[in-house]
Design goal:
Number of domains: 2
Mean pLDDT: 93
Low-confidence stretches: none
Order of helices and strands: HEHEEEEHEHEEEHHHH
Distance between the termini: 60 Å
Shape: elongated
Number of helices: 8
Number of strands: 9
Strand content: 15-25%
Structural class: alpha+beta
Strand order of the largest sheet: 6-7-9-8
């Protein structure tokens, strides 16, 4: 048991502070039970902090503001990588990520091809919503966000300023990706995207 704990601690300390960990990352060091017990003890010692069930971080300390924890987005990306699933931000979060809204939602909603679920991170949460492959087929990171952000705003509520901002953002997207992604968007969104080419 002690060997499992020591091996896990050594592995964690070899990674930069702020790194996220899952029990699955330490399969090679012992059984599932041994790994969970070791992580529980390392949490008690303060070596790691639990963010949610089965999600840990090696805390990063800022001399001015104290403990700096990973953002909900970083946690979502780490879960996607672990589970080998695709995720796309939706709604208010897509608007925020594009700089079209200053509102930071307490619940981050992502479309996914993985299992639907909700992960609580203190006061915030990550919701993974099952969707069709088409909704995850976008190749461009900006165009994928734009499609979701425009769906959130709605055709009749889009301001001229927002429209111009979106076209400007899309100009920095890879043109090949943009052309590919336009075919996935509803007609009214496609017409906006075309203006960026």
């Amino acid at each position: 048991m002690m060997n499992t704990e020591r091996a896990i601690e050594k592995s964690i300390k070899s990674k930069p502070k702020g790194t996220l960990f899952f029990p699955e990352d330490f399969r090679e060091y012992g059984s599932g039970v041994a790994v969970r017990k070791a992580l529980q003890r390392l949490k008690e010692y303060g070596t790691i902090k639990s963010l949610a069930q089965g999600i840990y971080v090696r805390p990063k300390i800022n001399p001015l503001i104290g403990e700096v924890l990973p953002t909900a987005d970083e946690v979502a990306q780490a879960i996607a990588k672990r589970d080998k699933i695709r995720i796309v931000p939706t709604g208010t979060y897509a608007l925020n990520a594009l700089g079209l809204s200053t509102q930071v939602p307490m619940k981050l909603v992502f479309l996914t091809d993985g299992a639907p679920r909700e992960i609580k991170l203190g006061k915030r949460s990550i919701k993974l919503k099952k969707t069709t492959p088409k909704n995850l087929a976008a190749k461009g990171s900006i165009s994928a966000l734009v499609i979701q952000a425009l769906r959130e705003i709605g055709k009749d509520h889009l301001s001229t300023a927002e429209k111009f901002r979106i076209i400007e953002l899309l100009k920095s997207e890879n043109p090949r990706h943009l052309k590919h992604d336009m075919d996935l968007a509803p007609v009214w969104i496609r017409q906006i995207m075309e203006k960026a080419l």
